[in-house]
Predict the 3D structure of the following.
Amino acid sequence: MQSSRRLEREAGRNVEVMWLLDRLAPDHKTIADSRKDNGVALRNVCARFVELCREMGLLATSSVAIDGSKFKAVNNRDKNFTKAKVQRRRAQHEHLLEAVQQRLDANPEAIRQRRETFEHPFGTMKARMGATHFLTKTLPKVAAEMALSVLAYNLTRVMNIVGIKPLIAAIAA
């Protein structure tokens, strides 16, 4: 859930959230400040959860998910990309693009597998986030917000796959 105000409402309405927070009812400002001040910790928790999934045998090999999603973000003059910058960057990496295309040509089944493996998670996360934008500004804060979305998605998937009790046992171990 993206909005701090919606999280505040859920903390007083949703039984699962009330249990998770031990009946604490933080206001939206406390939630927003916590997200802002703990970005590195949120990213570390997300990374540690992925490690836990590997330890549980849910990730047999290392996986990297790359998606073509576009999210609105702050774009200042120093960090934007004009058409000329994009063309220069593309020319610098043309050999990599050609190598990827050759691999796809050699294995046309790979694109189907990519869609099955990666499109669902990103589509689900985008729908949960409100589809197209981050509420925070600057790369570290956006990274923390994305890590929170990824963690929420991964927790939900693991609970659906192995169940809540085995997940709690694995976390406690």
About this structure: The CA atoms of residues 45 and 98 lie 36 Å apart.
